[in-house]
Amino acid sequence: MANFHPMREFLRTPNPWMPAGIAATVVYVVFVCLPVLALLIRAVQQESFADSLTSNIALQALRLSLITSLVSMVVVVVLGTPFALLLARSDSRILKAVDSLVELPLVLPPVVAGVAMLMAFGRQGLIGPALSGLGISLPFTTIAVVFAQMFVAAPFYVRAAKLGFQSVARDYEDVSQTLGVSPWRTFWKLTLPLAAPSIIGGLALAWARAISEFGATIMFAGNLTGRTQTMPLAILSAMESDLGAALSLSVLLLIGSLAVLLVLGMFTRRQWQGRL
Amino acid sequence: MTKGWVRCQLGDFSLETEWEAVPGQVLVLFGPSGAGKTTTLRAIAGLVQPLRGHIEVGGQVVYDSDSQVWVPPHRRRVGYLTQRYHLFPHLSLIGNISFGLTKRSTADYHPKIEYLLRSLQLEGLEERHIWELSGGQQQRVALARALATDPQVLLLDEPFSSLDGELRRTLHGEVRSILSEANIPVILVTHDREEALALGDAIQVIDRGQTLSRGDPLQVLGQPGQARVARLVGVENVLSMYVESRHPQDGTMVCGSRDAATGPVSTLHLEVPLSDLAKGQPVTVGIRASDIILAGEKLVSSSARNQIAGKVIAVELRPPGYEVTLDCAGIGFRCHITGTSLSEMGIKPGLDLWAVFKASSCFLVAEDAV
Q1: Both B270 and B346 in a single domain?
Q2: A222-246 pLDDT, tens per residue?
Q3: A184 touches chain B (CB under 8 A)
């Protein structure tokens, strides 16, 4: 069976639901690709593509998005990695409950997250007055943007990192220790590299989610040019005045998304995967 | 030298074991799965925390519950080879072997690594990925990795179980010579008789967390003194009998068969080595299948004290030879013979044969007090 080809074999086998499957596939592909294609065509058609990209508003939004998403990713990695390791390695019941809580932001509407953060950190919020006593006011600042991004993006990272660590059987770490390698060095030399594909994948997804954050940001941080207006917010504003700028920013985000897909495809597959 | 004792409690399972292994020698921990062999190894390596105990590795106390000594695994200097090797898949062959060596010490260890590569026939494969290696090569890499850090004791947890018989026998020889050159104590966990005999200098039979027997592998596996051990090590014929008559002048006694539940039935008589059991007392007799000779007719002049007529009821392939089961007065006798004997004698079910064996091939095993 040198020429065995699963897909061809599958298509050759008569199957009652296969026509429906093929039709659905076509519909799905068209449904996803048509808007993307339309966006690209319209963006290229306009004469001032480069101009609108380098317009003040677009540049400021781009800069802000990059900086805030970078900061939120650093915090997510620094806090999320030890957290994920603990979740992966412990079987305490409390941590199990915490584990399911991690995924709450995944299913919570971002707007609700924004309102909730406002209720916590806002001037009239739960700990807002205490913060303003210290001279700190979070809402409608760049830090609020970072907060909103971390809130919605962290679960993607923590979940992937946890699965990555879980995929490394404890026996590997045991063997490493008997070779005279301390638990700390075992983590850096063994556990982390083996979990890396999963971690990088999670980071890419988390970053994509952070950079596209809209609902929580507009609620908690507002839409202030140069301070809290990230790219998605700038697109909304530009749609009213300058369609060209909105299109250019959209294309930029689209390119970013494709880059994330590329990262997912490239770095999350290792030759040794499935061999742990 | 490494020695110690531990008491461990893992859920419902409790383990109590004591061992002593000498440099250059292989101590075999023999027993069925779930006996506590692996747990013992892991306790020595510091990977499980015993309830109580005292463990010494290379003369150094690494654990003592009374004086509260606990040396973490990475400072114990043990080499640990797991059943599935657990080679690190993100590293090359050489990366695996030198994993435990720090940058500073790599230079010092270089001759050692070269020696290991050479003696384990891994030269030229240094940059290979782990999954590009054969099962036997992976096994050698795991062994080299464990030996590279100069351990004070080598713990082998069924390291040959995933290899086929031919390769296993080849590796036994290789490993044997590497181990004797390393001159450190080796503790080998296995449930394979052949492996225990090929590699072991001493053996300890463990079952359900208890050491049942210890001693010379040939003795313990060949003529185990307890019925439970006999069954564990796979003595093919274990018969319930009673003493019929004693013959001190020959150093033998004649036993008759006994039904474990109802008592003497005396359909079968065996002459076995003399013991201090009195006439009429029950006794359990073990005979290895390989100690029985099959004959087409009764030997007229023979020194063998036992000749029993029977009918072949089953012939099974049992590499490298065959196992023939003989029905002798309602008792199944299992005998091992070669394929050549099988075909030359034309053995097949239904054939009448004689089972012939010496009195000294029979050994008495003590029934356990349950």
Answers
A1: yes
A2: 999 889 999 999 999 988 887 888 8
A3: no
| Residue B100 maps to a domain | yes
Distance separating alpha carbons of residues A184 and A190, to the nearest angstrom: 10
Scan residues 82-141 of A and list those with Cβ closer than 8 Å to B.
none
Specify which of A17-26, A88-97, A148-157 reaches the highest per-range mean pLDDT: A148-157
Is A179 within 8 Å of chain B by CB?
yes
| CATH number, residue B273 | 2.40.50.100
Range of the domain at B361: 237-365
Residues lower than pLDDT 50 in chain B: 369-370
User: Residues B176-213: pLDDT tens digits?
Assistant: 888 888 889 999 999 888 888 888 999 999 988 888 88
What is the total count of domains within chain B?
Answer: 2
Helix then strand count (H, E) for chain A reads 15, 0
Contact list in B for residue A186 (CB cut-off 8 A) is 74
ipTM of the complex in this document? 0.78
* CA geometry: angle B103, B45, B195, nearest 5 deg: 105
By 3-state DSSP, what share of chain B in percent is helix, strand and coil, each rounded to 5? 25, 40, 35
A51-267, superfamily in CATH?
MetI-like (1.10.3720.10)
- The whole-angstrom distance between B38's CA and the closest CA on chain A is 13
pLDDT tops 60 at residue A2: no
Q: Which residue from A minimizes the CA distance to B145?
A: A179
In B, which residues are within 8 Å of A200 by CB distance?
none
Residue type, A165: F
A198 contact residues in B (CB cutoff 8 A) = none
